[in-house]
Amino acid sequence: MIRLQGLSRRYSTARGTVTAVDDVTLEVTDGETCVLLGPSGCGKTTTLRMINRLVLPSSGKIFIAGRDTDGIDPVELRRGIGYVIQQIGLFPNMTVAENIGVVPRLLGWSTARSRRRAEELLALLALEPAQFLDRYPNELSGGQAQRIGVARALAVDPPVLLMDEPFAALDPINREVIQDEFLRMQQTLRKTILFVSHDIDEAVKMADRIAIFRAGRLAQFGPPDELLARPADDFVASFVGRDRTLKRLRLIRVREVMVPAAGGEGVSGPSVSADDDLRRVASLFLEHDVETIRCIDDTGRAIGQVSRAAVAARLGSEVVG
Amino acid sequence: METLSFVLHNLPAIGERTLEHISIVGVAVGIAILTGVPIGIAITQSQRIADTVLYIGSIVITIPSIALFGVLIPILSKIGHGIGWLPAVIAAMLYAQLPIIRNTYTAIRNVDPALRSAAIGMGMSAVQRLVRVEIPIALPVILAGVRIAVVLNIGVTAIAAYIGAGGLGTFISRGISQTDIRQLITGALSLGLLAIAADYALLRLQRRLTPKGLAVQTE
User: Fold this and answer.
1) Which chain B residues are within 8 Å of A87, Cβ to Cβ?
2) Contact, A83 vs B122, CB < 8 A?
3) Mean pLDDT in chain B?
4) Which residue of B lies nearest to A51 if distances are taken between CA atoms?
């Protein structure tokens, strides 16, 4: 668990004191992905960098697993926290295996052990180990390099990952692919992740909870659906966008709004699976002039139906936990 | 023709002068690397100190070598080495400082800040960062500075023949005083060859020591 308590960072400039981060208190539970979201200059990156003490807080406390990080040697603290940055920062003088092995080496692992670990991680990230271990960073594409950046952060299996706009520099197609891979990986790894982003779509996709920042202050902190359904103020509402209802569709599964019904074989028309999200349902409603859509299982058997009314009721009323 | 026979008859002497020359340049550049690289790294910490050090370095390098020898003679006479090998080494070492310090400073300063940030964020200490990341990346540029220093010093050392330091400049100084064209040409040609050979050898070294992953960018 990571707990930020009354965290502030002030800078003195020629024109007086600037408060980059202003009294931020939030708690991220173990295995959760918390996205720090906001426009540039809102203090989200500064907040992140205070957690591994690249920036020192002016006031406030940070606790990781109950330990006040003030009392931990910064170098030691950082070795236990995975860190991924937008520019990736792979060391050009080292091979992929050596890059992944940086922290293991700092911790005194043998070369053989850290190479085995690198192989493991490459496989986990869908990169063929034999093909990549001995390449240099200048022989990698942007997407490959960013995967290596993630692998490097995971090298010693730290419980906490800090990710500073890790996928922002990638093209949209690559970004989607890496996000999906990362989500899949996170399902088994269950790391505690703080993830900085300025992209609401990315945040909705990646986050268990989103912390929206405005001018150094925490504007709202909650699950994506809550932010989208009930923005705390005009700033949050305008940041999440006027199409926030459309964004919510991604977060809701068909099974949550489906009315079960047995049989119904042979009925034609569009159908969805219970694990699809409502984006698919909504697009079918827009394409076909129907009031309900059949829901089928893997074998093609109808198991229920989704109605326009049920979707509207779901979006109109309560919030997905 | 006369020159050729002079060269052939004096091969051992030419070899000896060449070794003297190399010993002066080698020792001077060696000391300059041992001092200049740490200075170049240290001054990256403060823009103001860096400006001052580089300014002093560029003043030193503008002093004509013959004037510098002139200054060194009375100082080093106090310990009985006013002329000869020692003042030649000291002068050459001083001239070598600027290219080495400046290249080290520039190379370290130009290391991508993202790499520094990643290195710190991963828990490298300042020394580990320097040894594992910054110096390897800076190495090609530092070695380029060493090359400049060596070539510069081969020229400076030629003039040191006038203060009795030996070296290939001896042929030129004698050639002038004895109006002997053979010695002049011998000295000039062998100096030129030495400079070209040293530069080429260091270029090869520079390529070999360039980290593999950087090779594509520095070609």
Assistant:
1) 112, 114, 117-118
2) yes
3) 92
4) B121
